[in-house]
Amino acid sequence: MHISVSTKGLLKFLGLILFYATLSAIMAVTLNSKGIIWGGDDAPFHVGRLISLNYSFEHGNLIPSISNSNFRQIGYGINLFYPWITIAPIALLFSLFSNPITAFYTGIGIYFFISFFISHIVMVKFSKSFWNAIIFSLFYNLSNYLLIEVLPRTDIAEFIATILLPICFLGLYEVFFRDFHKWNILAIGMSGLLLTHLLSTVIVSSFFIIILLLYVIKSNNYWNRIKALCKAIFATICASAIFLIPFLNEITFQPYEQPSPYILKGKVLEKIVSASFLNSSIQSTSGNTYNIGVFLIVALIFGLIFFYKFSTLYKRIYVLAFLSFFMTTNVFPWSLFQNTPIRVIQFPFRFLMVATLLASVIAAKLLIMLIDDFNLSKLQFPITIILAAILCGFWISSVHITQQQKMISKKTQIITSKKIKKRTVYEDYYEQYSPAAAGKFINSTIWHIGKIDKQKITFDPQAKGESTVFKLGEMPKNTVVELPVIRYKNTELTINGKHAKISTSKNGTVRTKFNQKIKHPKLKVTYKLTNLTIFSAALSFVSWVFLLLGLNNENKYNWKHMEKSLKNIKYNNSAV
Fold first, then answer.
1. Cβ-contact 165, 353 below 8 angstroms
2. Transmembrane stretches, by residue range (predicted)?
């Protein structure tokens, strides 16, 4: 029976979907081997964010700002200062599953699949090669550092940022070195990054500056490319408005300190190389140095050996891969940048996300070169399956070794379904996204210590919908009350349903004065949803629609074009 080219291509596409879905399911099930969320570095913080978002969504607030349900019920402005859009799907899953642990790992599995698929599509667009795309996607998504992000670090935001990283780099490549008309790819990538993790945005932007300093002189059509960059920047700001506008509105209202300032210092070169060869993904608190893993460190070594065989483009990619890896070590002069804005990244090892991406491109290129040199193009399918089995085997082995470590599996460190349901996770980092005044006295605030006429009192906050409620005894006229709730710009207070004036206490908390005697006052603290916030959400929505429609128009998805694309999938199997 004759099967048309388009049918073969469609079957190939469906097979690819099944392949990536199977890998994603295996990875998620492996992580969920004990029915707990492992005690990673940032697990309590990010699980706390998910609990807070889920609570807000269940109470009808689709643009959450502060946390009333958890984070010690101090009215913590977590969603004002930490982007929440891209983790929202996992929070929504908490309402669909009776077991929040199952919901969590289902969400992670979905993001694994999305990451495989995005990596594949980006590499197809970059290299015009179907097999190169699969191999790159395998090296990247089964890399040691992406596992480190998910398990020992449990930095869900940074993990999602790594999913968007390929889009960002493809966008920059198009704007400055290929087709500047495709500036919307850069806008989509950077907008997604801004709506995920601010520090990753700083890291990527910094590295983009390095790329341009090194290679922009090799470009052409400078004026058109600058205009395309300006369009991308403007579109990024608009598409990120749902977070950026409320964020800027708050940080211009009162002073804030830099969250968790650290001295910039790279990891010891010998240790990071050694840890890479060991493919170690255990926590740094258990003695590990976060690294890129054995396959990518080998790719950097062989890339140097066969550097002369690379095209000019891949030579540049290799230089950037090596540079980004070098920047994570103690050999790089980070002390020169301590007093610059880049100090906010806290840990230079975060550049491993860039090194992992670029080294994966090199690893895929080396394997494609090997296939071409030995005329193994007819064996690309079995070679890819073997590669997937090897990489997945190493990944699973690393997971099991990490899960056996004492710290990450310690009873006081792990997060259970019971802890999530009862909202008893101790999230920590309470001072990071509090105003400077509140941060200094955060220890008393998190234990609900406020004041009534300058006398310290322990209050009993209760979450009621999107408000924090305090019930007090009789309050005489002119009584001054300082509640253990952080005061932000749009914080509002009602007493027995009537709007009350507030000010900021020396502790950075909500302060009010009773204008009359009230026997049984009920104080309700709420963060007001302003017209500005609603406008910012609408602006983001419209911007994303235009960006995605622009992406769609570029490809002109009609049946004729689809048939042509499917033919390319069938016949274009070589690397660039």
1. yes
2. 12-31, 74-97, 104-123, 129-147, 159-177, 183-216, 228-248, 290-311, 349-371, 383-401, 529-551
Can you tell me the distance from the alpha carbon of 484 to that of 285, in angstroms, rounded to the nearest whole number? Answer: 33
Under 8 Å between Cβ of 381 and 130: no
Model confidence at 453, pLDDT cuts 50, 70, 90, reads very high
Task: Find out whether 505 and 493 touch, Cβ atoms under 8 Å.
Answer: no
Is residue 169 domain-shared with residue 231, that is, in the same domain? yes
Segment 95-117, tens digit of pLDDT: 999 999 999 999 999 999 999 99
Query: What are the CA-CA distances from residue 189 to residues 158, 262, 298, 437 (Å)?
Result: 14, 28, 29, 35
Q: Please state at what angle helix 100-127 crosses helix 5-31, rounded to 10 degrees.
A: 140
Answer yes or no: do 394 and 475 share one domain. no
pTM score, whole prediction: 0.94
324 and 452 share one domain: no
pLDDT in tens, 346-396: 999 999 999 999 999 999 999 999 999 999 999 999 999 999 999 999 999
CB hemisphere CA count around 139 (13 angstroms): 29
CA atoms in the 13 A half-sphere facing the CB of 204: 30
Q: Which amino acid is at 250?
A: E
CATH number of the domain encompassing residue 491: 2.60.40
> Which residue in the block uniquely carries the two structure tokens 């060991």?
278
Q: How do residues 235-247 score in pLDDT, each as one tens digit?
A: 999 999 999 999 9
Q: Helix H segments across 240-379?
A: 241-251, 269-278, 294-305, 312-326, 352-373
